[in-house]
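<instruction>
Derive structure tokens from the sequence
<data>
Labelled lines for chain and fold:
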Amino acid sequence: MNLKSLLKICLFALLIVACKNDEKDVKEEPTETVETAQADFDYNVEEFTDIKILRYQIPGWENLSLKEQKLVYYLTQAGLAGRDIMWDQNYRHNLKIRRALENVYKQFSGDKTTDDWKNFETYLKRIWFSNGIHHHYSNAKLKPEFSKEYLNELFSATDTKLDGKAFDVIFNDEDAKKVNQAKGVDNVLESAVNFYGPDVTNADVANFYKKKTSPNPEKPLSFGLNSKLVKENGVLKERVYKSGGLYGAAIDEIIKWLEKAQGVAENKAQGDALGLLIDYYKTGDLQTWDDYNVAWTAATEGNIDYINSFIEVYNDPLGYRGSYETIVQINDFDMSEKMAVLSENAQWFEDNSPLMDEHKKDSVVGVTYKVVNVAGEAGDASPSTPIGVNLPNANWIRAAVGSKSVSLGNIINAYNNAGGTGRLKEFAHDAEEIQLEEEYGQLADKLHTALHEVIGHASGQLNPGVGETKETLKNYASTLEEGRADLVGLYYLYNPKLQELGLVDDWKKVGKAAYDGYIRNGLMTQLIRLDVGDDVEEAHMRNRQWVSAWAYEKGKEDNVIEKVTRDGKTYFNINDYEKLHEIFGQLLRETQRIKSEGDFKAVEDLVEGYGVKVDQAIHKEVKARNEQFPSPPYSGFVNPVLVPEMNDAGEITAIKVTQPNAFAQQMLNYSSNYSHLPEVN
């Protein structure tokens, strides 16, 4: 079988789809787990409110050497050791609230058949899923469907204490948004996220970092990434995340496990990178962070890779501070080899993009793309996980050294094996659109993710003298970057180059399926995630809406996208895919100009004009039409449990993979084994 045919088959299949003393800190095996080696693997765990909990497998685990399995285990433990950091970053009262509610859950022996108790359980599960009391996607505070009187009864029955603001905030209107991106408000003051002191303002942040200068302006440091900005006696001060600093107790645990991982590193480059990460956690030094990212990006050999630290800045309304996140990955060598074709042709995509010549890179370097299988996640990546990641985030490292792009193959496979087609048939315009989605939709989605991560985030360059995007575009930086990368993918999904490279059989049909799905989601179906009357807040939802709405408006004169009303239902039908391709190219050119020039007024007009406000009539209609589908709009995962087996000398002799039977079981196990922070930090 030739490479081209094998590539197509593999793509389709994916889519359907150290020393004795080191062993003393092995975590105890949790009770009630099941072996993963099942032919009839059940991906579904449970559902509650708008959440579906799934499982995922770890393909190829048995093919790893014991040393490699140890590396995965240690990296996973390092990730979980920092889990509570994410909780505290999300909101200052989260740990206090979680521990009180968990005590009730474990200790209450009263009537558990009442609606009040069931609502209490659901509320706790929602908090577990969101790593705090604010919804993981909408950022709105979760509302309990039980009274404060009932909660006090539970506290009294279980000798649980939760006083003052931590109790009151569960029921009142304070701290209503974790991240408030609204125009015309002080975004820092109005956001409950715990990256800033309660009296720090937008102006404080801007003025504080305006005074910061990097030793090398061409290699700007990521100021604010690993700290909390507070006022002490009226003076702004950073509390740095490091050993001996903020979150030091948890960071010391992370360091302990990373040192074990370094001891079983696959090669020198990997070990050196881990050493720099350890140094960064010890010192909090941002130059060490950049040195680590350069080393980590260059360390591409081996079966195991990982993401670990304070990385994505979506939870900061101003885009400075990184949320704690970890993903441990096992390379899928077969699929990565097939998909390397995108990386190898990155320069062609850059050269042939619709960007202005001055915004194109002369040399796209170091873009690596791999399909990986996740072995464990924590922090901002769990329970709700991405399906693709491109790092590092610093523009100068991307330009000078490159980046790593990964697609989380077993996560995508779990999604694909746990879903249905009901919503497609309800919201698609006609039978042709449904057929295209059923035959090519998964492939289109996979390729869009790959193009978004590999080509999109690596493309384009800033004009000389223009500052980092978080400084120039401020609270719109994240949604602009995600939309720009989406547009790169959309532009090339409808292009014969994909067929020439052997990635698709029929580029037009794949492109049409991609365009249908994107417009359908951006203008309608993603609205099922919002309550009627809400604005769009989350960066990715915003970008999908402003891309789709801008394209719809610009194509009105030629009826490129037609709004159709049939039997009282709204549909959006694409009449001219070629012209839509041109429109996506025009918007890509403009978004890159905005980023390259740091044009704040233009990004504000784009996002506020097209990405924030929702057509209320369509929103109500979409919510009503969606009521027939019981499947929740959001999914997340429990993690497989890696259980070491020991000999009499205390050495690990094997590591088996088990699965938790229930979401609550894993959450309580994590709280029992990985609570390394006090309630107030």
Observations:
- DSSP finds 26 helices and 15 strands in the chain.
- Confidence is low (pLDDT under 50) at residues 1-38.
- The first helix runs from residue 3 to 15.
